[in-house]
Amino acid sequence: MSMKTWASVDDYIVEALFDADPALDAVLAANRGGGLPAIDVSPAQGKLLSLLARMQGAKKVLEIGTLGGYSTIWMARALPVDGKVVTLELDPHHASVARSNFERAGVSDRVELRVGPALQSLAALAAENAGPFDFIFIDADKPNNPHYLSWAMRLSRPGTVIVCDNVIRDGAVVNEDGRDANVEGARAAFSFIGGDKRLEGTAIQTVGAKGYDGFAIAIVN
Ligand code: SAH
Ligand code: DHB
Ligand code: MG
């Protein structure tokens, strides 16, 4: 099975199940036009995040790693009118592209974007008692995964769902001797979730337009 097949099947899923979505297409075009790396979640993955947030009945969502806001918009669309996504981004250029995308997609009223190192923003959110969040999506610099998970626990309640992206990495997650910092970050997410008695988790391996990767998914007890 090849990357080409995975991408074709992803196209099939979108064609069969999704309404035409010029606003989201424009978001991806703006991201590429702005020179952002093509590491947004795929459309099928974005919709999965949206469905998970709805299944969870989420009103308050926290995202770590905005990029151009593609995943943010999918999650914002899952929220009731009084819901909110707080999304954290280090890079001011990514943040400004994201901000105009939120306008374009009509979700600005439901999104709060904080620019700066996520570890600082997370400390500020905790100091402001901004939690608990119902749904938390971790998708930033992978070596910080254990720190992000640790803040996620502090900003959660029993029943909070935590999703962590890119934890399979072409299967490299099982190569223990690998020295890749991103792979180590993936392994660190597994160790954290496996080691924290309050978390019940699993992971799903995904193939598609973005290759072979996966999500860790956990619930706080
Ligand atoms: N969630 C996005 C993709 C995020 S890509 C989507 O699916 O559409 C990862 C993002 O994390 C990048 O924009 C990168 O600039 C940001 N990032 C990296 N290190 C960070 C840090 N320390 N704090 C906050 N954001 C960071
Ligand atoms: C990378 C980061 C991501 O968030 C992603 O979805 C894919 C790749 C990366 O840094 O390589
Ligand atoms: Mg990712």
Would you mind describing this structure in some detail?
By secondary structure, the protein is of the alpha/beta class. The chain is built from 8 helices and 7 strands. The chain has a single domain, classed as Vaccinia Virus protein VP39 (Rossmann fold). Helix content is 43%, strand content 20%. Helix 3 packs parallel to helix 4 and helix 6 runs parallel beside helix 7. The protein is globular and about 40 Å long. The mean pLDDT is 97. It binds S-adenosyl-L-homocysteine (SAH), 3,4-dihydroxybenzoic acid and magnesium ion. Magnesium ion (MG) binds next to loops.
Concise account of the structure shown:
This protein has helices at residues 3-17, 22-33, 43-55, 70-76, 92-105, 118-127, 145-154, 181-195, and strands spanning 60-64, 84-89, 111-115, 135-138, 161-165, 199-208, 211-220.
